[in-house]
Design goal:
Helix content is about 35%, strand content about 25%. The protein is α/β, with parallel strands linked by helices. It folds into two domains: about 1-220, 3-Layer(aba) Sandwich (Rossmann fold); about 225-295, Alpha-Beta Plaits, CATH 3.30.70. The protein has a six-stranded mixed sheet with strand order 6-7-8-3-9-10, with helices on both faces. Strands 2-1-4-5 form a four-stranded antiparallel sheet, with helices on one face. Helix 3 (about 95-105) crosses helix 4, helix 8 crosses helix 11 and helix 9 runs antiparallel to helix 10. The radius of gyration is 23 Å and the shape is globular. The chain starts with a strand and ends in a 10-residue tail after the last helix. Keywords: Antibiotic resistance, ATP-binding, Cell membrane, Hydrolase, Membrane, Nucleotide-binding, Translocase, Transport. Its EC number is 3.6.3.-. One of its GO terms (biological process) is response to antibiotic. GO terms for molecular function: ATP binding; ATP hydrolysis activity.
Amino acid sequence: MFAVQAKALVKTYGSTRALDGVDLSIPTGKVLGLLGPNGAGKTTTVRILTTLLRPDSGEAEVAGHDVLAQPDAVRRSIGLSGQYAAVDENLTGFENLYMVGRLYGSKKAAAKSRARELLARFRLEDAADRPAKTYSGGMRRRLDLAGALVAEPTVVILDEPTTGLDPRGRIDTWEVIKELVADGTTVLLTTQYLEEADQLADSIVVIDKGKVIARGTADELKQEIGGERLELVVANTSDLAMTTQVLTEVGSGTPTVDEHTRKVDVLVEGGPKALIEALRRLDGHGVAVQDVALHRPTLDDVFLSLTGHATDEGEKK
């Protein structure tokens, strides 16, 4: 049973094809991570699934309702937290959540109880009676996410929900998402934090330039690119050029260099053999190595391999 399904979604803006036949599906009670660089089509997909935008062609269902034929039913079934906190800054945190509850048709007592419950859940109790305009950016993001959960929706769509949060706020948000899924809620998560997708997503869809370019679990995607990542830290900055040359020769990709930490890393096949060979060659050139590490590929490696650039690069919206 799928809580969200989209088939062959197409959306164009003039000569720009924002979506070019996107397919995705999310089983009930699971988390799908939608990854892609800026301008890839993530937010366009979210806007279609939340009935805020009509596709040029294709079809989609959310919670069993057609987004084009039954938009009101879709809206009653979902919670949405967008990239920017949608809160009324002149209302208090409590008033914001109470207002959302009343708009969804809750009785006064139920709306008040739900507002207090969510304020506690997101560590906003101490600021509950302060105007939202006095909140920090991270507090507004947490209030916005709380607002998306007021009606206890069966499907929650989170468009980069932890943008602007500090590490504690991000971890707290992850815990809330895990609790939602444990209760049977289905989640569509767009994110540029690959660690976030690794932590939360049951499956991942990667889109770039409006097209799906990969899909699978985090482990499946990591296995697709193969190899491991070899990292070396050298004692002297002057040895970075030689180290980069050696890792280019033993590696299976282009090394990355961090001059500040004197670290050079590269994807390699046959990790231990490549490590031994790199150290042998560097020793022959008199390069002093301070630290060595060999890691499995990360989602960052997958993303770089698939799109050719990191998540924070690419065309801006």
